[in-house]
Amino acid sequence: MTGFARLDALINRLIESDQTGAEIDPFDVARELGEIRAELMAMPTVQRSPEDLRHFRCEACGTIMHGEDPPDRCARCGKTKLANVDIESARGS
Known about the structure:
By secondary structure, the chain is α+β, with helices and mostly antiparallel strands. The chain has two domains: 40 residues, no CATH class; 38 residues. Helices cover 38% and strands 13% of the residues. The protein has two helices and three strands.
């Protein structure tokens, strides 16, 4: 199941729990949200630009930065963990 499908399923479980009064463990929800977030952050999501610059997403705040090489730090939050989020097939190679 993809991250988006897992997110939809979790939302449905939360709605059902709210409507039926069934208890749901908040730690299970938090764990699953963390796993879904990690899966979505790891997905390539951006096509390369016409200038053929690569796209790098900060794994802390989600900011997208452009360049031939990854920046040392995120321009917004200053964190150093950046992921290349180019869709490989869009490179034309």
